[in-house]
TrEMBL record:
Keywords per UniProt: Hydrolase
Pfam family, one: SpoIIE
Keyword match Transmembrane helix: no
PANTHER family for the chain: STAGE II SPORULATION PROTEIN E (PTHR43156:SF2), STAGE II SPORULATION PROTEIN E-RELATED (PTHR43156)
Listed InterPro entries: Bact_Sigma-Reg, GAF, GAF-like_dom_sf, HATPase_C_sf, HATPase_dom, PAS, PAS-assoc_C, PAS-like_dom_sf
Residue span(s) of domain PAC: 240-292
UniProt cross-references to Gene3D superfamilies, sorted A to Z: 3.30.450.40, Histidine kinase-like ATPase, C-terminal domain, PAS domain, PPM-type phosphatase domain
Species of origin: Streptomyces anandii
Record-given protein name: SpoIIE family protein phosphatase
Cross-referenced PROSITE patterns: PAC
Length: 818
């Protein structure tokens, strides 16, 4: 039993022994400007930390300043450049007490900087350095359980091995080392070593000592990142590293790597940037520590919104530097791996088993089908198998020359796995292993964020799809089509909407609008505005009243968002329309002769801005063949184009298309459209009614013989239309009942409307009461009323009620000659 315990203890200490050996190897080498960084990277390799940094005392002795860091950007965890020694930060506490500080999520929540840290299980370790260094080592991890006992031992070994040599810098009067430079931040004068001049293809006699001379020889696209280093306002205390390209008179640009540190000035001395520049084009990614690639990956993952974006960023950061032949990234969904990216994508580049079993570009397979992979996922650490290792065929053929499996975990959950394979035997160096480990941690966290983002995006997208019309209604004398394109930038749905609302008397309302912002709140408010406009329109209000009511409703919702809207009420019988704009783009009309007009429609303010706002109405003329186009600013406005120019271009595109096929017109107008914002497009082609209805109206006065006057008006009108006597008698009975109900049960004006179209007669009586007449369920012999509605129902092919401007309209339809 004692032997078993001894063997277990030895196994647990294997990691700390390997870390001690690696650190001894590093510290025994001659001191270089990047040794501190290489030491810190061992904390990432052996403890699974996502970030490690060294803080040392500044010149004044009252601050702990960031000296060097490795891993993801410190800003992801809210860490600062400097901490006051007299403050209550964990770094200051470890420095004052000389004892390590180990903090979990609960303790970190009580720290002053907790609001700067991300949500989730984050663990912080602060280990003091020796008295000579007078600083501390800071490490952060998101691994489940934080730093265990062996991780803590490894961090203490790293802290013991830390040395902080100043960057290569010449003493006063001495010559700079060949690969070093010293830049005075106040004058821009720079001293450079001979090796740097050689990399820039400059002779000593050709260099004037100005930093602008060197910057002029770099590739223009790399200047912004270089300027962020050489401008003092953008440079913080601590070391920076970046790669840039320098132009060459013959051949492609040369990659150079700059490492520098800003030294603060004082006592008449200017602040200086000192460091080294080396040739990066000759460095093998697997033979040197390439923290720059990890930082680039972190930057790419910070902007990756979807799972596929994350996968492509990982493939782009790993395959070429590692000289891998193939790489696959797969999500873990329940017990199955769902592959999101295969690189290269050609099926013949992958094992035959993959092609036979998975068959598609996005294959999936149960984890249990690959026990070796399942074991790696359970352990949660990067696994490397050299050439010749006995693996199951599904894995062995991915990397016959070597296979690396990176479990992608974050927050205690396994998000997926990354498989990297080589065809020829591959030697895995220590720096390459560090790159794989750091990349796995970054990719796992990004994948979890992308999962949450995709779920939210799908939820909001489904919300918007349900709030927009599923299909447009069939219109009398017109055809309408609509298109909606979500933005491809930002990946959040917006508040663009459209609607087509059939109204009584062959009127149709065409609505398009845009709620401010791109979020679930914007999509929700869009649904509310669309519903409100439809409800106000159905009540029979004129267009300006409809928009005014919507404005008042939006103000009462007490939201910070506003909305724009264009509302067009078209009379399909008369070929006329009224337009109301609330901060929205005007309609565009394509006339039958092919000419195009941007309607000069006077507009009001956006909805939800002013409580007392006017929304004037502008008349529009519709001739058969006229196309009415309504759109949102996403189609006509971009950072490169003014909105007026965009509207003119939109009008020109509308003039150039054939309006016979309205769907093709919509597709043509959207061709080549930018997708930085949502786009909604609504088109209507007015064809005119084949048969125009016959209409007459009568205002019923409240006099004793009002019903007799209404009957006489109806008889005279129907006879002039050629209606037979039998149908006239039935219509007179309906008119008598409806007019009587309007006079007896309501106050105010009563109006009688009669319409005849295609042998179908419609009688409608409007009054000022919103109460709908109720059909009685049963009538006794003694009842003196209630039979009128039953009589109307018996005489009608259909009947019902509609809200009209605060009142109602009771209507009845009958088929003539039935």
């Amino acid at each position: 039993m004692a032997n078993v315990v001894s063997e277990g203890a030895t196994a647990r200490r294997t990691k700390s022994l390997r870390a001690e050996l690696a650190l001894k190897t590093l510290t025994s080498e001659p001191a270089t400007s990047d040794r501190l960084r290489r030491v810190l990277e061992q904390a990432l390799v052996f403890t699974g930390a996502a970030f490690a940094a060294v803080y040392t005392c500044g010149e004044g002795g009252d601050l702990l300043c960031l000296t060097e860091s490795a891993g993801v950007p410190r800003t992801l965890y809210g860490l600062r450049d400097a901490y006051p020694l007299a403050g209550r930060s964990p770094a200051a506490e470890a420095r004052r007490t000389g004892r390590p500080v180990w903090l979990g999520p609960e303790e970190l929540a009580e720290c002053a900087d907790s609001r700067r840290m991300p949500a989730g299980d984050v663990f912080l370790a602060v280990v003091p350095l020796n008295e000579r260094e007078g600083g501390c080592l800071v490490a952060v991890t998101e691994s489940p359980g934080g730093f265990d006992s062996e991780d803590r031992e490894c961090l203490e070994l790293v802290a013991h091995a830390v040395a902080c040599p100043a960057p290569a810098e010449a003493a006063h009067g001495e010559e700079l080392p060949p690969g070093a430079f010293s830049l005075a931040m106040d004058t821009g004068r720079v001293e450079v070593g001979d090796d740097i001049l050689r990399l820039f293809d400059l002779g000593r006699s050709d260099f004037d000592g100005k930093v602008e001379t060197l910057l002029s020889l770099t590739v223009p696209e790399d200047l912004p990142s270089l300027m962020s280093v050489v401008e003092a306002d953008h440079m913080s205390i601590g070391e920076r590293e970046l790669e840039f390209r320098v132009l060459r008179p013959d051949g492609p640009p040369r990659w150079l790597r700059l490492r520098g540190r800003l030294l603060p000035g004082g006592e008449g001395r200017p602040a200086r940037l000192v460091g080294t520049v080396a040739d990066a084009s000759t460095m093998r990614a697997g033979g040197v520590t390439d923290v720059t690639r990890v930082q680039r990956l972190a930057a790419a993952l910070a902007t990756a919104g979807t799972v596929r974006d994350v996968s492509q960023a990982v493939v782009g950061a790993l395959r070429k530097p590692l000289q891998a032949d193939r790489i696959a990234l797969a999500e873990l969904e329940n017990d199955r791996l769902v592959v999101t990216v295969l690189d290269p994508p050609e099926p013949e580049a992958w094992p035959e088993l993959w092609r036979l079993e998975w068959r598609t570009e996005w294959p999936d397979a149960p984890v249990r089908a690959m026990p070796t992979l399942a074991a790696a996922l359970r352990e949660g650490r990067a696994q490397i198998w050299p050439a010749g290792t006995g693996l199951e065929p599904a894995l062995a053929e991915v990397g016959p020359g070597g296979l690396a499996v990176l479990p992608l975990s974050a927050g205690g959950r396994m998000a997926g796995a990354c498989l990297i394979g080589w065809d020829t035997p591959h030697d895995f160096g220590p720096d390459e292993r560090a790159l794989l480990t750091a990349s796995a941690g970054l990719a796992g966290q990004a994948l979890m964020r992308a999962h949450a983002f995709d779920a939210e995006h799908e939820l909001v997208g489904m919300l918007q799809r349900t709030l927009l019309p599923r299909r447009l209604p069939k219109l009398p004398g017109a055809e309408a089509v609509a298109r909606y394109l979500p933005a491809t930038a930002g990946l959040e749905v917006g508040g663009d909407w459209y609607d087509v609302i059939p109204l009584p008397d062959n009127h149709v309302a065409f609505v398009i609008g845009d709620v401010q912002g791109h979020s679930a709140a914007a999509a929700t408010l869009m649904g509310q505005m669309r519903t409100a406009l439809r409800a106000y329109a159905a009540e029979g209000h004129p267009p300006d009243v409809v928009v005014s009511h919507a404005n008042r409703l939006l103000l009462e919702l007490e939201t910070d968002l506003f909305a724009t809207c264009a509302y067009v009420d078209a009379d399909m019988e008369a070929g006329t329309a009224w337009c109301v704009r609330a901060g929205h783009l005007p309609p565009v009309l394509r006339h039958p002769d092919g000419s195009v007009e941007i309607a000069e429609a006077e507009g009001g303010p956006p909805l939800g801005v002013l409580s007392q706002a006017d929304f004037p109405m502008t008349p529009l003329r519709l001739q058969p063949g006229t196309v009415l186009a309504l759109t949102t600013d996403g189609l006509v406005e971009s950072p490169q184009a003014d909105i007026d120019d965009g509207m003119n271009r939109f009008a020109e595109d509308l003039a150039a298309v054939d309006p016979a096929h309205l769907g093709l017109v919509a597709d043509a107008l959207l061709t080549g459209a930018g997708r930085s914002d949502d786009i909604a497009l609504l088109l209507m082609r007015y064809d005119g009614l084949a048969v125009r209805p016959l209409r007459e109206s009568w205002t019923v006065w409240r006099v004793p013989e009002a019903v007799r006057h209404a009957r006489r008006f109806t008889r005279r009108t129907l006879r002039s239309w050629g209606v037979g006597d039998d149908d006239i008698d039935a219509a007179l009975l309906i008119v008598s009942e409806l007019v009587t109900n309007g006079l007896v049960h309501t106050d105010g004006q009563v109006r009688l409307d009669i319409t005849l179209v295609n042998h179908r007669l419609r009688v409608a009586v409007a009054d000022s009461s919103p109460r709908t007449p109720i059909k009685p369920t049963s009538i006794g012999w003694e009842a003196t009323g209630g039979r009128g509605i039953l009589l109307v129902e018996a005489m009608s092919a259909a009947w019902g009620t509609l809200p009209v401007s605060g009142g109602k309209q009771v209507w009845s339809e009958m088929v003539l000659g039935r």
